[in-house]
Amino acid sequence: xxxxxxxxxxxxxxxxxxxxxxxxxxxxxxxxxxxxxxxxxxxxxxxxxxxxxxxxxxxxxxxxxxxxxxxxxxxxxxxxxxxxxxxxxxxxxxxxxxxxxxxxxxxxxxxxxxxxxxxxxxxxxxxxxxxxxxxxxxxxxxxxxxxxxxxxxxxxxxxxxxxxxxxxxxxxxxxxxxxxxxxxxxxxxxxxxxxxxxxxxxxxxxxxxxxxxxxxxxxxxxxxxxxxxxxxxxxxxxxxxxxxxxxxxxxxxxxxxxxxxxxxxxxxxxxxxxxxxxxxxxxxxxxxxxxxxxxxxxxxxxxxxxxxxxxxxxxxxxxxxxxxxxxxxxxxxxxxxxxxxxxxxxxxxxxxxxxxxxxxxxxxxxxxxxxxxxxxxxxxxxxxxxxxxxxxxxxxxxxxxxxxxxxxxxxxxxxxxxxxxxxxxxxxxxxxxxxxxxxxxxxxxxxxxxxx
Length: 452
Hints:
Blueprint: E1 16-19, E2 26-29, E3 32-35, E4 47-50, H1 67-70, H2 80-87, H3 92-98, H4 103-109, E5 117-121, H5 127-138, E6 151-155, H6 162-171, E7 177-179, H7 188-197, E8 203-205, H8 219-224, E9 237-239, H9 248-257, E10 263-265, H10 274-283, E11 289-291, H11 300-306, E12 315-317, H12 326-335, E13 341-343, H13 352-361, E14 367-369, H14 378-387, E15 393-395, H15 404-413, E16 419-421, H16 429-438, E17 443-445
Parallel strand pairs: 5-6, 6-7, 7-8, 8-9, 9-10, 10-11, 11-12, 12-13, 13-14, 14-15, 15-16, 16-17
Antiparallel strand pairs: 1-4, 2-3
Helix pairs in contact: 5-6, 6-7, 9-10, 10-11, 11-12, 12-13, 13-14, 14-15, 15-16
């Protein structure tokens, strides 16, 4: 038990960690109410070690069973497999609390099948300590190694530091997915240690981690590997949204070490430029989904680099990249004919000519967002309607040049339309009703109070 606890507890050979509840929260143990212990100073949630549920001395006295005692509680009639299935839907802290109910639940809650994932949330949780206690318990059968743990999700925990990531790196060699979104106290060095010690890591979410500027192997790991050691990092999904200090050089290093990337999100990475995208395309030729939304330094030259992905690219977000015009759209449309999703909201340089080229070359397009593109008019809608029959989602929010006529042309040809956003557009009630009649399953988002 840590020094910040006011408990003095016996530690048995098979301890179970419990994520402490806030003060005055009641748990039930062996059918009786039992108040949990908590720090008398703060209401923070911390990892504690508890023994298996034990019978009190008074409970050991043999008495004749009453009729009520003979009646089994409904939950006790459930099979072990059913309870395990129920426990599999609980977050880590509740699973630890369930382990305190009775001896049967204790054994079931520590079934290895329930510990492929650890999920922790909360700003005040002492995550470093929770991870240390949990991994220690999970390493009992295989000292110092958690072979069953594949996913660790820690979201919005400001108290997660490099020490917590070092614990994961040392104890979880089979880790495949790591999400630390919003944990802004972790640094590059700890991530280097994780990717170096967890060779199977495929999914990494560091969105909102403002200190992260690069993903790479440690120097020690690089020396042990061949000159092509970059290919040893198997990350395929990387989310670096809101990593504000990411620059072209850092992106260059990431690309050189993570050549198997298929999904990359860099929303609001404002220091990334066309040069960074050039580095990216040199190494990562298998990218299917790419987001550079709000990367305002990216221009048409960057789109020329992205177009080198050709038919691999299925999803592209360039929202609010004001330096991208019809020229950049033409590059994408010409070479990325398999594109299914395009978000170009706020790209005010896009006109009907860009939409025409896009519609004629990317006929399999299913989702398009061109909101706040004031130069797109009904003529652009006509090109979409005559070429993109599979369109399911269309956002035209704040497109002041589009009228009900363009909308009716789309509705008459795109019967699969499921979502239409025409907020802040000058669309008549008759046009909206026309859309509703022709696209039965379409949800219309609008700002016309006369249409309901």
